[in-house]
């Protein structure tokens, strides 16, 4: 069992929903999962976790600043354990090359900006939550939706996240964590066995030397017959 931290930022709650789904998948595999909004980490110490996942939506072609700041200040720690990044965007709702390239570029920009190279990357389609937008945002999203998804009914919300994709991402991450944890335990056990063998050899040598010394001493003091 590994301790896994899932840190995320979220505006309208879809990234939070994904983080919680990831938590369910990891917990079902027996891991100890802590999920925290990046701004509400409290006394969470990143170094104390075996593995870390970070999630952010794309807002105005960038990831949330609070998430970027978290990555920047924890880059070195992230690199020393299994780690991954998941992103939500509307670009990923469009099954066209230019849109998929765009979604990939958002991640590339994060890598360039922070110097963190996440080992696992999930690019998920997000949601359009008209019910949570102000009138201007609603109008902008209606326009964008008209040329992308066609979902322009502002009286309801639209969720595009493919939960099977989220599940596959979390499962692959968990498998990697489990494999590396097992390898590290085996390595520790092997090192312990090697150490024990050296101790046993040392003790045997000591007994050998003591035996020879005893024999030599006993021989010297044995009275010789005339
Ligand atoms: C103000 C705003 C700006 C956005 N900008 C982009 C963008 O530039 N590119 C994109 O693909 N999606 C964009 N989106 C879509 C979000 O990434 C998507 O709605 C996501 O599901 C939001 O996640 P959240 O609910 O966790 O905040 C934007 C959404 C909002 C509300």
Automatic annotation (TrEMBL):
Q: Which residues form a coiled coil?
A: none
Keyword Nucleotide-binding in record? no
Transmembrane residue ranges: 196-216
Task: Mention one GO molecular function.
Answer: menaquinone-dependent protoporphyrinogen oxidase activity
Q: Under which name does UniProt file this protein?
A: Protoporphyrinogen oxidase
Q: Biological process (GO) annotations? A: heme biosynthetic process
Q: Which organism is it from?
A: Haloferax marinum
Give every Flavodoxin-like domain span: 4-148
The protein's UniProt keywords, in alphabetical order, are: Membrane, Transmembrane, Transmembrane helix
One Pfam match: Flavodoxin_5
């Amino acid at each position: 069992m590994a301790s896994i931290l899932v840190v995320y930022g979220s505006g309208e709650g879809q990234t939070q929903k994904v983080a919680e789904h990831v938590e369910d998948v990891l917990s079902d595999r027996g891991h100890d999962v802590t999920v925290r909004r990046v701004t509400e980490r409290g006394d969470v110490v990143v170094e104390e976790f075996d593995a870390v996942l970070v999630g952010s939506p794309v807002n105005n072609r960038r990831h949330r600043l609070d998430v970027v700041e978290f990555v920047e200040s924890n880059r070195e720690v992230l690199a020393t354990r299994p780690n991954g990044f998941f992103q939500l965007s509307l670009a990923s709702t469009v099954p066209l090359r230019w849109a998929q390239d765009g979604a990939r570029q958002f991640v590339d920009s994060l890598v360039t900006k922070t110097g963190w190279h996440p080992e696992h990357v999930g690019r998920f389609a997000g949601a359009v939550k008209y019910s949570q937008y102000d009138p201007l945002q609603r109008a902008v999203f209606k326009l964008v939706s008209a040329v992308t998804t066609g979902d322009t009914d502002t009286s309801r919300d639209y969720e595009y996240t493919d939960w099977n994709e989220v599940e596959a991402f979390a499962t692959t991450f968990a498998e990697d964590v489990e494999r590396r944890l097992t390898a590290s335990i085996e390595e520790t056990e092997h090192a312990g066995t090697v150490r024990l063998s050296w101790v046993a050899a040392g003790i045997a040598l000591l007994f050998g030397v003591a035996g020879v010394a005893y024999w030599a001493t006993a021989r010297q003091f044995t009275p010789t017959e005339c």
